[in-house]
Write a structure and sequence with these properties.
This protein is an alpha/beta fold and about 350 residues long. It has two domains: about 200 residues, Alpha-Beta Complex (Quinone Oxidoreductase, Chain A, domain 1), CATH 3.90.180; about 140 residues, NAD(P)-binding Rossmann-like Domain (Rossmann fold, 3-Layer(aba) Sandwich). The protein is built from ten helices and 16 strands. It binds nicotinamide-adenine-dinucleotide and zinc ion (2 copies).
Amino acid sequence: MKAVQYREVGQPPEVVTVPDPEPGPGQVLLKVAAAGVCHSDIAVMSWPADTFPFQLPMTLGHEGAGTVAALGDGVTGIAEGDLVAVYGPQGCGRCALCMQGKENYCLRAAELDINPPGLGAPGAMAEYLLVDDARFLLPLDGLDPVKTVPLTDAGLTPYHAVKRSLPKLVPGSTAVVIGAGGLGHVAIQLLRALTPARVIALDVAEQKLELAKQVGAHETLVSDDKAADRVKELTGGRGAQAVFDFVGVQPTVTLAGAVTGVEADVAIVGVADGALPVGFGRLPYDVSVFSPYWGSRGELHEVLELARAGAVDVHVETYSLDEAPAAYERLHEGKVNGRAVIVP
Ligand code: NAD
Ligand code: ZN
Ligand code: ZN
């Protein structure tokens, strides 16, 4: 089958032919219908060789959806032909956190060498994807795989962050979204669907700010050195009650801290090297700063329910497997508006 692989550190991904996978006991084989292109892959492909954590070559794609093509021995509760989305941050299923569905924070994944598809294990950017357990598959139940596949990460990750801050996002509050790309444009919709907060979106690209407006941001601002003052003005000097940074570089993390009000939450979601010092007097009183990773299985179920209710509409650009390297290039150049999705 065809697969999009990261083969050598520092080299662009390549479309290659690899053996068709076959499901072993307990496994499920999917015919991939859609695979999302995430900026995290660009971060991964920039890591140096001496500390690179995954085995290469590696088939990319940690957002996947498809049709069940074959079942390994002993798999029950799912049938050939079912359309499903894949829960990516897979864990052991048995530790204290996995028991709560928080497989993204599995206590034993490293020890047991369990990796998400596309981030250590073979990913979804191929004609077929092998999934290790049926519990990682959520029925699409009428949702379109291409429009839905980004929800497995670009939806689930902001959902997890937003959900944590819901108690702060009461009427009269403000939420700030920094970076209105794949994750950010879904975050805006989640904030609008789940909270009465006023949403201020920031980005460096005009096209992204237009999309932010279109999907529900009340205000949009260019993310520059005047942005913090503008947010303060827009909030009457109070600052925001929740800030979601989907970039994570030093300028955006500093901005995130600068726009916080008393008791605000700051979620640093972007994978980069920004750091926000916490200590008495550094930030307004009682500000919480955290860096979440992906979301729980239960939260993915909730995100899909929200999509069924019509509350989120992911803007997608589609590409073939052969075009995947070009899609990564466009994402790297900041040219993808919404989410790029590979349709094999
Ligand atoms: P994306 O490229 O689609 O979106 C990033 C957006 O940020 C773009 O619209 C870009 O124009 C904007 N941007 C860049 N520099 C900016 C700045 N200085 N100020 C404001 N906006 C700026 O990327 P994505 O796929 O949505 O991923 C966003 C980030 O989240 C990436 O760093 C990715 O690695 C990370 N991520 C983290 C998790 C997690 O679990 N923590 C999960 C998925 C993705
Ligand atoms: Zn991702
Ligand atoms: Zn576990």
